[in-house]
Write a structure and sequence with these properties.
Number of strands: 0
Radius of gyration: 14 Å
Shape: elongated
Length: 76
C-alpha cells in the first residue's frame, strides 16, 4: 500500500495535507509569539493581505484549491 492509496487520495493530496499541517503548525507558533512581538504580528497581517485568506483558515483554503492550484498559490 502506498500513501496515495488511502481513502482514494492521490499522492499529491497526501503531500498537500502534510504540507498544510506543517504550515499551520508554523503559523500557530508565530501567532503565539506575535502577542509580544508587534513586528511579527504585522508580518502575519501582511501575509493575510497577500494571500487574501486569514492565516487561521489557510489549510482549508489550500485543501479546497487542490494540489495543482495550491502549488500555484504557494509559489505566486
Amino acid at each position: 500500500m502506498h500513501p496515495g492509496d488511502i481513502l482514494g487520495q492521490s499522492h499529491a493530496d497526501v503531500v498537500l495535507s502534510q504540507l498544510s499541517q506543517k504550515i499551520m503548525r508554523v503559523l500557530h507558533k508565530a501567532e503565539e509569539k506575535a502577542e509580544n512581538k508587534p513586528v511579527l504580528k504585522q508580518k502575519l497581517n501582511e501575509l493575510q493581505g497577500l494571500w487574501g485568506v486569514e492565516h487561521k483558515r489557510l489549510h482549508r483554503h489550500l485543501y479546497k484549491l487542490g494540489p495543482e492550484q495550491a502549488v500555484d498559490f504557494t509559489v505566486a
